[in-house]
Amino acid sequence: MGRPKAGIAAPVPSIRAATPADLPAINRVIALARDSWDLPERVRRLAGRLHELGPTSFDSYEVIVAEDPEGTVRGVAVMLLRPPVLDDGGPGNTALYLEGLFVEPERGRRGIGSLLLRQVEARAREAGLSRIDLRARREAIGFFRKSGFRPLGPDDARHAMTKTLPA
């Protein structure tokens, strides 16, 4: 399908909470994203099993989807309310943990990831949280930095990042 022609704006996707009925579409987007990663094939297969969602995933995770006007899921964000990656020792300190942000590769760089991320931030604020933590793939670090995230440590090989949300 490719990118829209110059001068023609792509329709803005809508964001909504996912349901178990969305699982096939969610896992399709995750698989497409995973298959585009620069990983050895064996690691890519293992990563697929780690990221795939099932019916019980909704017991632990909050999942939102970005869908086009035809109702096709084009992006997914998976989040978890839990202790943060970086524990600064504050009493009752929790952060929203962004477990995964996936967009169909052919729809990358069209604002879908940013739209999902803004909704994740809104969810964190709604839950009374002031921070989002995540672990980024090496290729996604630039995206998250542009979105206000910073590395948790100077040489963190796991690419742990955090963003403090404005009050």
UniProtKB/TrEMBL annotation:
Keyword Chloroplast applies: no
Top-level EC class: transferase
Any one Gene Ontology molecular-function term assigned to this protein's record: acyltransferase activity
Pfam family, one: Acetyltransf_1
PROSITE patterns for the chain: GNAT
InterPro entries: Acyl_CoA_acyltransferase, Bact_Acetyltransf, GNAT_dom
Gene3D superfamilies xref list: 3.40.630.30
Domain of life: Bacteria
Keywords in alphabetical order: Acyltransferase, Transferase
All residue ranges annotated as the N-acetyltransferase domain in the record: 13-166
Record EC number: 2.3.-.-
Protein name: GNAT family N-acetyltransferase
Organism: Marinibaculum pumilum
